[in-house]
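re: ur question from earlier - yeah i can do the single chain one, its not a big deal. heres the input i used so u can compare w yours
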Amino acid sequence: MVRRQGDTGPALRWKKPAYRLSFHVRSGLGCGCTSCSFWADNFNGIDVHLAHRDVTFVAISRAPLAKLQAYRKRMGWSFKWLSSFGSDFNRDYYVTFTPEEMSSGTAFYNYTRQTPPVSEMVGISVFYKDDKGDILHTYSTYTRGVDMLNGAYHYLDLTPKGRDESGLSFTQAWVHRHDEYKD
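and the output i got, formated as tokens:
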């Protein structure tokens, strides 16, 4: 169970099931990675709807809670955001890699050993708390498997050019934080 820093009780008030998104905050930048910020723009506001279907949604990051709260305020987001700072939670779900894994070029991610491009990668997991209080990990998806949860991509996929990412240096090279676009 992830706890908020300074919190002595469970941080996640469980409903059945609970979605957990791994949100990456880059060290020293004071802000979330561009791609994770794009994702957050797409799920901000859905938590109230999910709660009315007995589902909890949270984002979890390894950064200290104060840094997360400051960035959430800057971006105008309202979703619940927890810190796993100082714990192995993100490693337990294969979205954070050690310096040794990064230097060796091999880590377990997306159900296989591969070379992760960065030390933090995207992942979404679903948990279920049964009537006995046991918390069960029921689903995870990584990399392009998370696309089905991004509303902006669905809108782009309906246009004649689609996502139009084929000529880019990487698929989301066009994405900026919503307060950093030039126009």
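The beta strands are 18-22, 56-61, 80-83, 107-109, 112-114, 123-129, 135-142. not sure if urs matches, ping me
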